[in-house]
Specification:
eight-stranded parallel β-sheet; 8 strands; 42% helix; alpha/beta; 17% strand; single chain
């Protein structure tokens, strides 16, 4: 199994990273895509520690929409910062997570748009996949992706929690859907229904650690080992075995991120 999105270079895991990795391997999780905030020097530095503890991990680097305001006066500087981090991190395989977030609006929307655009342009110029964060901003997210490359882009909608209609719109871009621990929540029937009918070769699984721990760990710190719960639930929804889901999502990860 592959955890396609986690934040284990965060401070939350600094004290027990080795144990986190040990539990992940014991659960059958062979690797993870670790998300790094381009503007966070401490987190970037901890990427080296993650690589030492778990060499199979790969990385994505981006400026999250929550932090877009840091580059409000010069959006191009966000892309320059990401490019600099990518150049110094041989295990980086993607630009992300990037996108739009209208739920919190921690950054002005016009600034979010500009910072998102320049990072999409960077990903396209380097032929790298994009890890998308979109919350209550799907129309603008899809519009900007179309305007900045459309079919020439590749990537994943991270932490997808929508219904079948939302899945259809996202899949129409050619991107993948990454299913988080939310799929295990009792009230997530519409997400399970969407995950049940999505093409098998367009699905990934993730934890978004330390957030969104699946049942029965809900409310606790999430970690990559718990992606097994996502795989189990996805397998039940699709009427296949967990082994089949794990193997297929591993292949999908390889196809997208070319690790």
């Amino acid at each position: 199994m592959t955890d396609s999105h986690c934040h284990i270079a965060g401070q939350e895991f600094a004290a027990d990273l080795d144990a986190i990795v040990e539990r992940a391997r014991a659960a059958g999780v062979s690797r993870a895509l670790v998300i790094l905030a381009a503007e966070d020097d401490a987190e970037i530095a901890r990427a080296g520690t993650v690589s030492q503890a778990w060499p199979e991990c790969r990385f994505a680097v981006g400026v999250h929409p929550h932090h877009a305001h840091l580059f409000g006066a010069d959006p191009a500087a966000a892309a320059a910062k990401v490019a600099e981090r990518l150049d110094r991190l041989p295990s980086a395989r993607a630009v992300g997570e990037i996108g739009l977030d209208y739920h919190y609006d921690f950054s002005p929307r016009e600034v979010q748009h500009a910072v998102f655009r320049v990072q999409v342009q960077l990903a396209r110029s380097r032929d790298l996949p994009i890890v998308i964060h979109t919350r209550e901003a799907e129309d603008d997210t899809l519009r900007i992706l179309q305007e900045e490359g459309g079919a020439a882009l590749r990537g994943v909608f991270h932490c997808f929690t929508g219904d079948e209609a939302a899945a259809g719109r996202a899949l129409a871009t050619g991107f993948y859907l990454s299913i988080p621990g939310v799929v295990t929540f009792p009230k997530a029937e519409s997400l399970r229904a969407a995950a049940a009918v999505a093409p098998a070769d367009r699905l990934l699984v993730e934890t978004d650690s330390p957030y969104l721990a699946p049942v029965p760990f809900r409310g606790k710190r999430n970690e990559p080992a718990h992606v097994a719960r996502v795989v189990d639930t996805l397998a039940a929804a699709r009427g296949v075995t967990a082994g089949e889901v794990g193997a297929q999502t591993d292949r999908n990860f390889d196809a997208l991120f070319r690790p």
